[in-house]
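User: Design a sequence. Structure:
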């Protein structure tokens, strides 16, 4: 399966409004949903937040110029919220999944879908 297929099938198909797969090494984009792109600055901030989860909690996570309040952050996942929507970030060995949801998708369902893809990618060595 291509990286784009993971986005289209597992994330967008699960109800996310936007998604992107970044390299966990340098933050470069491997695939993204149509019209969605995490900026280089945002990607670097995400990488640094996975290295220091306290930074995520203190500074929040900005995706597409929207600052989200961090609810949970550790070395494998970051959950953040803005109004009725939010973002789930999941880090694997080689990737960072970025999945943005709105009020049509419950936060728990968003986390489960993104974490499930992250678990699958880890099992596959990614």
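Assistant: Done.
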């Amino acid at each position: 399966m291509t990286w784009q297929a993971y986005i289209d099938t597992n994330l967008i198909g699960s109800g996310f409004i936007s998604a992107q797969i970044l390299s966990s090494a340098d933050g470069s984009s491997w695939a993204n949903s149509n019209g969605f792109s995490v900026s280089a600055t945002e990607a670097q901030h995400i990488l640094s937040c996975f290295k220091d989860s306290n930074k995520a909690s203190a500074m929040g996570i900005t995706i597409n110029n929207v600052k989200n309040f961090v609810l949970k952050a550790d070395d494998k996942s970051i959950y953040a919220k803005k109004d009725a929507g939010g973002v789930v970030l999941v880090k694997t060995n080689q990737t960072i999944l970025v999945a943005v949801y709105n009020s049509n998708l419950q936060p728990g369902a968003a986390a489960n879908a993104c974490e499930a893809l992250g678990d699958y990618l880890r099992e596959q060595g990614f």
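The domain at 3-123 is CATH 3.30.450.30 (Beta-Lactamase). Strands lie at 18-23, 29-32, 61-63, 66-73, 77-82, 85-91, 95-101.
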